Amino acid sequence: MKFFIDTANLEEIKQAQDLGVLDGVTTNPSLMAKEGITGDKNVMQHYKDICAIVDDNVSAEVISTDFDGMVKEGEILAALNDKIVVKIPMIKDGIKALKYFSDKGIRTNCTLIFSAGQALLAAKAGANYVSPFLGRLDDIGADSFGLIEDIRLIFDNYGYETEILAASIRNTTHIVECAKIGADVMTGPLSSILGLLKHPLTDSGLAQFLADHKKAAGK
Ligand code: E4P
Hints:
This protein is of the alpha/beta class. It has a single domain (2-216), classed as Alpha-Beta Barrel (TIM Barrel), CATH 3.20.20. The chain is 55% helix and 16% strand. The chain is built from eleven helices and eight strands. It has an eight-stranded parallel beta barrel with strand order 1-2-3-4-5-6-7-8, surrounded by seven helices. The longest helix has 17 residues, at 200-216. Erythose-4-phosphate binds at residues 6, 26, 28, 111, 131, 133, 135-136, 167-168, 187. Erythose-4-phosphate binds next to helix 7.
């Protein structure tokens, strides 16, 4: 399973990269705004800064919602660095843009996926990644893991190479369940990744090992 971090915070991206388990980054306009990154020039520089930290897979989202605008923005983003994956919303013109970028060999991530039908359409249009939003589905009481299972089944039925990028991850259970179902990628906050480290028996076990070692050494 690939691990992406879902943030535009450079310090958190560095921390995850230093851990040695990071495969990429996803950002969105809300995450960029949260870091106070505004204005085209600053936004472009921020993507370059992120690319300088990680090895690959930096999802950069377009703001336009019409085909021409998405193509123009996506081409500018893709030209910034080979690590950029152009993030396109699941709308009609977005599907056309996915096909355009796929034909040009520019990688894409179709975002705001909430149904298996949307994922199927994005895969047909040649998206490299589809991003079903788990946490937001949970928020409305919908079956988020069921959606991942359905998309997995459909992609396997037809051999689509589009990767399932489980997004809007909120906790470690989301990550583990998605791994069991067969999501290719998860993107979540640093806390969800670090949360995988934790178990009380690990803490008490380590404390016991160290105490026994100290006792045996007569300290
Ligand atoms: C995905 O790429 C999105 O940036 C993200 O996962 C949305 O998560 P949220 O629902 O926590 O905002």
